[in-house]
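Chapter summary example.
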Amino acid sequence: MNAKDFENARKQNLKKIVELGIEPYPNRFNRKHCFKEVLEECASVKNGEKSNKEVLTAGRVIGKRNFGKLFFLDIMEEEAKLQIVASLESIGKKAFSLLSLTDTGDFIGVQGLPGKTKRGEKSVFANKIFFLSKSLLPLPEKWHGLKDIETRYRKRHLDLIVNPETKQVFKTRAKIITLVRKFLEKQGFLEVELPLLQPSYGGANARPFTTKSHAWKSRFYLSISPELYLKRLITGGFEKVFTISKNFRNEDVDKTHNPEFTMMECYAAYWDYNDMMELTENMFEYIAKEILGKTTIEYEGTKIELKVPWKRITMHEALKELAGIDASKLSDKELKKMIDENELDVEPFKRGLAIAELFEHFCENQLIQPTFITDHPKETTPLCKQKKENPNLIERFEPFINTWEVGNAYTEQNDPQLQEKFFKEQQEQGKAKGENHPPDKDFVEALKQGMPPTGGLGIGIDRLVMLLTNQPTIKDVILFPQMKPEAKNQTQQTATSHTKPEQTQK
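The structure predicted for these 506 residues follows.
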């Protein structure tokens, strides 16, 4: 049978249910007991006995077996499973007929006595059955699981139904985000909400998604970063602020990148990047302890220790230590030659950008244990304060774990004249790649009102969740990741793939 045949057969069952005078999609069901309560009550009696405490519960049918005048059904709630035992004598002819029309995927309610079968199976012995929702399509591969990766991402509802471990990942994700909030609030940070539709974009080097306002007949952009708005709040008098928000960057998709992703950004007046380093490592250690009960995590077979303190090393030191490159002793010509020999892209050539590109090429894949890479070249961002002892460097760090950049932080630039100058320089150097962001005049104007010394930090929530849940790709920790649109024939194939899924590579 193909998917259409299954659907037609279930529609016939639906028609018969209606003919029995039963509403197949009622508005509400007064469920009084969750499975945990029911199973605890089942456990309180001996094999072959029933409790005298009646329960009223509900769940999705995932299996059924008929033995003449006796039905056994398995129903699911979250990750828990419960057996229902229903006889013709106990529930009556009409309800018994209803069970014969029930398919896997349907939702039913049951009233009865919890207990155990003679073999010790925890069960509810039904005296009443309620029909709650008719499923017109079968569960994937008769409940053996959904393996096709493409289908799991495109049809997350199926993935959640048949793969309990997927549901657990997203429960853990929710807990991680709650813990991030809790940690920052304990540090005195205030959570704020910021616009995602913006008249200008900034805070990162990225291509934006664009849209149009019909009311104002003007172009708007989806936020690539909340940074410039948060710093306006510091200028306005808030001392510690943070947001957990969606960012949108019109970029490629890979293991750790999705065009729509979640970031936490926080800013604190009177702090610098050293304070933000302490905040970062303490936050990761705290969340790991709360989620896992320890600071050591294992990601794809590699043990990673999140315990404070983390290693701190400058970008120049990392190049020298990990790649044998002493950038301070190389001329611009020698750097350009090295860039060309390794087929790297630094156009137009800037010394600082070349150093950063060489670091990314030679060093990042060696940064497994938590490491702060500090003191980046000034050309890498216009938003950061220069180091007093070396104005070619800026007070910036990126924390790396498992070769990934999991965050970004600065001692924030608060000189409005320098900020305006750096914006213009950054705009010119970014034109070749199309990733420059335009000077934000409103932000510069806000800086002219005066912003105190400030430290800022951004943490990628999705990558943090990947690490703490041991998930191989960012798509595994985003409920509905961005996917390439399907062609019509592909859509039809995906629609039927849940009946006989195929294994694909991640």
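To summarize the output: Confidence is low (pLDDT under 50) at residues 491-506.
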